[in-house]
Amino acid sequence: MRVKITIQRFNPDKDVKSHPEDYFIEAGRETTVLLALLKIKSEIDGTLTFRSSCRAAICGSCLIQINGIQKLACQTSVFEELDHHGKLVIGPMANMPVIKDMVIKMDPFWDKIKKVRPYVVSQKGSEAVPSEGLKTIQKDLHNADACIMCGACLSACNSFEASPQFLGPAALAKAYRFQVDPRDESRAQRLDDLQGDDGIWDCVRCVYCVQVCPKDVAPMEQIIRLRRKSIESGLGNSIGARHITQFVSIVGENGHLNESRLPLMMLLGNISKLIQMIPLSVKMFFRGKAPMPFGDPQPGHKDVRSIFKGKNK
Amino acid sequence: MKVAYYPGCAAKGATPELHQSTMKVVERIGLEVEELTAFNCCGAGVIGEADPDLAYTLNARTLAIAEGLHLDIMTVCGTCQGVLGGANHDLQSDNALRERINRRLKSTTGHSYNGTVTVKHLQWILVKDFGLDALKPFITHPLTDVSIAAFYGCYILRPDTSSQFDDWENPTSLEKLIKTIGAFPVEYDGRTKCCGFPVFLEKEDISVGLVEKRIGEAKACGSDAMVTPCPLCHMGLDFNQAKAEKLHQKREAGAQHKLQMPILHLPQLLGLAMGFSPEELGMKRHLVSTTPLIQKID
């Protein structure tokens, strides 16, 4: 069947910005987007530029944007996309500098991976391997070691979109992978390194990384595990950590969240931030949007308190 | 049709206009609701970060109460929908999890959840159950000549395992509702993305930066207002807009258009098209004025 594919083209030698071009090819049920790109390159326009290698969703090099979503071209069906979206629009990964057509600069991705030291830090050499071997850590990894470095998660990451310094999902999933490796001797330091600006507390939990990862690494889930581990390890003083501990404490007491009390408790001790909140708080108060910070508990709060305390009825 | 109405913390706290406008709309169309007055917080994904089983148990309690009433749950918050709906999905599909959580729930509260409840946002109830054709006769004041940008937010769409009623890659519910009230749905990339509210206090740069991007894009596409099914998105986009405005003017030096984007809760938009006054829908409570939109409608 003859299908139309719209490709976002960009040639730095002659284009100021990218532009869409339409191509028409014969495609069948078995045609992947990568096969379509190869066909266009060999039969219609040899200048079309993209990365690919294994054609089997292993190397991660053909990650592009297909109908607005980060996908591996080699495992995406042309017909399924047309059935799903009624169109097939292709472009380079979002939020990354474009070199030419589908080829983007992966430097931001690799720089972040390097920052989390993606290797075991140990002075012991082979002695660091536990006597029972490494099989026992498999369940703790939660698939964080399945990453193929395609860049889908970083390109889709909403925090990265607003803050290019954010370490991002792939690097943080990698950080988690070494956080649970019993051979590693720098785990406390690793966790400490992730507490500051651009670390685990910058994730907006938009779930995009979980959704687009072709290998089910679920980076956001690994970031959440790092957050939990931080609080359990006594690293609970950042605003992000206090967001969690104070939220739990308020709901545990009242059964519901009090939106006036949460920021107060999160920012306790942070006078300058508290002062910055005053104009907004005043506006909210006069519009009836600021519940009393120490208001009445929710009906049913006794049930909730029992759940929190594990107290038997 | 009758449902158990789970208002969630925001509709009873910082966005009371959401509860107010919801009640107006459901009463007008005859959708019978029984409010879960003894509801507990869904945890908003935050309690789950600290202790997943605790979050499951809290949500199992809500589900068990609705099950006792033989009613499905209606949410009006995208975050509640994602979290409560997600917990429901897991409790229904994983028997071992449900048994473990039920042991904790039963011993502490006496409740037990059998997995028979469906959790649906008002948005989906209107589109899928009530039906757009049934809704049309109530649209007495169609919003013609008005362009509305749908803003879905995150948790009503992702993860897609807990969002079975919309296609996360290309959702259509809100656009269908916008068309039904006679307005024009604006197409823009940011409609399924994050508003930045979860890091409102932690990281203002990200929070304000995302608000500026989302609203700036919707504005550039000619939107008169944005509509969201999530009160947390409403708060992010409304509360942060003054700061986003400053960023916008800085980024787009000499920008001709100010953001000035009214952010409506879904039932407020529907309520306007049903002839309710802005006061009746609590629109005076917004930080960003809705007056330009109201003037355009009038």
What does the model show?
The complex is a heterodimer of chains A (313) and B (298). Chain A is of the alpha+beta class and 313 residues long. Chain A has 3 domains: 2-104, Ubiquitin-like (UB roll) (Roll); 107-232, Fumarate Reductase Iron-sulfur Protein, Chain B, domain 2; 242-311, no CATH class. Chain A is built from 14 helices and 7 strands. In chain A, the strands form 2 sheets. Chain A has a 5-stranded mixed β-sheet with strand order 2-1-5-3-4. Chain A has a two-stranded antiparallel ribbon with strand order 6-7. By secondary structure, chain B is α/β, with parallel strands linked by helices. Chain B has 13 helices and 8 strands. A 4-stranded parallel β-sheet of chain B has the order 2-1-3-4. Chain B is globular and about 60 Å long. Classes of the chains: A alpha+beta (313), B alpha/beta (298). Chains A and B meet through helix 6, helix 9, helix 10, helix 11 and helix 12 of A and helix 3, helix 4, helix 6 and helix 9 of B.
